[in-house]
Design brief:
The complex is a heterodimer of chains A (237) and B (229). Chain A has 237 residues and is mostly helical. Helices cover 66% and strands 2% of the residues of chain A. In chain A, strands 1-2 form a two-stranded antiparallel ribbon. In chain A, helix 3 runs parallel beside helix 6 and helix 4 crosses helix 6. The longest helix of chain A is centred in the middle third of the chain and has 31 residues. Chain A is globular and about 60 Å long. The C terminus of chain A is likely disordered. The termini of chain B are far apart. The chains are: A mainly alpha (237), B alpha+beta (229). The interface between A and B is medium-sized, with 32 and 26 residues.
Chain lengths: 237, 229
């Protein structure tokens, strides 16, 4: 049995308040590195790890941080954790470090990390905060992977290309050639492809929500989902 | 408002400010200590993996089995030189079979990449043919300019076998500029910089061939050429 609060965290992170397609936070990595599934999954999981750690760390010290300087302290904690994670990945998971490149340290600037710390972890228990960080991270990862798959299939006709960079040369055979003898569609790989793909995903989600709202005939439930247009203003690239 | 009350309020404000500043300082110190610890804990592993990566890269730019010395041991200093694009002294690795120098690997830098320097290893045989070029560090756009990495694309392999005079000087450009080297549409600045840097490295090799390939004993450039034993 899961408590109502746990259920809320799950539903919010994965659907109602999904960072990728509802809150529209963390778009910098979303748009930059979602050009194939392997990159998207790697960065998504690294971000999830950072979110879990930073939410947990902030929840533990939330009562001793003066309100006026809380944002400065949060950023300090997030930056330190990201650097720690970066060093650890560099030392013990070199291939992953090579794949993620500059986007690993850039997790610091990902708004979704600070947003969850400020909106959730600074007010809740450590266990709930870690769980919220993980679920929000996985929600973002899911969007990244779907967008990555979309762009990779359209752009290169493959899935999982570059898996050998992350998991070693023996996995080279895992690459799926979804469309054989495909010439490629550069637009999908380039940044505009990310914007178009993300737009389509947001449209799809809104469509599903609209259909559900009509079915249940209780329009009042739709206001629970934050309107994307206003939530987007906090994004820092 | 009376004097003593205002003074009390001021003292209270100062106390609060000091306490807040102290808290922030405390967090900064704790975070810095944690980072220092993480750095020290990961440094051996990072150095080890970087050196292993360097050896693996050096082997890639040289023909397999063509030499029998330890390349990292056989490193010698390269001066700061415009042709190599080096801002700090770099290294050259001489590959020998027995006492004969068969090839040399030069560190070179393409200073005019799309996002700053592109660091290269350029392998050249004793008679001036390229045995391989690899990128060791760059900040080019991921997914766009990073096809110069051999792990992502075969692009860099087209240098293999090229020489300073083959193609001729006007051929040492990307195809878009009338040269012989392919480049992907949408990212030509990166390959242009690499082609230019490899060409310059070959010119450097042509000018300093004898010094570069001299036996290890004559670390300093010998004034007169001596017969190698």
């Amino acid at each position: 049995m899961i408590s109502a609060e746990t259920r809320d965290i799950l539903v919010n992170g994965l659907w109602k308040q999904n960072p990728g397609i509802v809150q529209l936070l963390g778009l910098c990595p979303l748009l930059a590195i979602s050009n194939n599934v392997v990159n998207a999954l790697s960065l998504g999981l690294a971000t999830t790890l950072v979110m879990a750690l930073s939410s947990g760390a902030v929840a533990l010290v939330r009562n001793i941080i003066p309100n006026q300087i809380r944002i400065a302290v949060f950023v300090l904690i997030i930056a330190a954790l990201v650097t720690g994670v970066e060093l650890a990945i560099h030392a013990w998971a070199l291939p992953l470090y090579v794949v993620l490149g500059v986007f690993l340290p850039l997790i610091t600037t990902n708004c979704i990390v600070l947003a969850r710390v400020e909106a959730f972890a600074s007010k809740r228990s450590a266990a709930h905060s870690v769980f919220d960080g993980v679920v929000m991270g996985l929600g973002l990862t899911a969007v990244l992977v779907v967008l990555g798959a979309l762009r990779e299939i359209l752009g290169k006709g493959t899935l999982l290309s570059g898996i050998d960079l992350a998991l070693g040369p023996e996995t080279r055979g895992w690459v799926l050639h979804v469309i054989p003898d495909y010439d490629g569609f550069l637009l999908a790989i380039l940044p505009p492809g990310a914007f178009i793909g993300l737009g389509l995903l947001i449209a799809l989600r809104n469509m599903i929500e609209n259909v559900r709202a009509e079915r249940t005939l209780t329009p009042a439930t739709t206001h629970l989902a934050a309107p994307p247009a206003t939530a987007a203003s906090g994004e820092a690239a | 408002m009376s004097g003593p009350l205002a003074r009390d309020a001021l003292r209270e404000t100062l106390r609060e400010t000091a306490s807040t500043a102290f808290t922030l300082l405390l967090f900064a110190v704790v975070c810095a200590a944690l980072l220092a610890g993480a750095y020290l804990a990961t440094r051996p592993a990072i150095e080890h993996s970087e050196q292993a990566e360097k050896r693996a890269l050096l082997i890639q730019v040289l023909p397999p089995g063509g030499f029998d010395n330890d390349l990292v041991q056989a490193a010698r200093a390269l001066p700061v030189d415009r042709l190599l694009g080096l801002k700090r002294p770099g290294q050259a690795y001489v590959a020998r079979r027995g006492a004969t120098a068969v090839a040399v690997v030069l560190e070179a830098v393409a200073p005019d990449g799309y996002a700053g320097e592109i660091r290269l290893l350029v392998g050249i045989t004793a008679d001036g043919a390229l045995t391989g070029v690899r990128v060791t560090a760059h900040k080019e756009t991921p997914g766009l300019g990073d096809y110069i990495e051999v792990a992502k694309n075969d692009w860099i392999l087209q240098f293999d076998g090229k020489r300073l005079d083959a193609p001729a000087t006007e051929g040492w450009k990307v195809r878009k500029d009338g040269g012989q080297f392919d480049a992907y549409a949408g990212a030509t600045i990166t390959p242009r910089a690499v082609v230019k840097a490899v060409h310059s490295a070959l010119r450097y090799f042509a000018a300093h061939r004898d010094t570069l390939l001299a036996a290890p004993g004559d670390a300093a450039p010998p004034p007169q050429k001596e017969p190698t034993p």
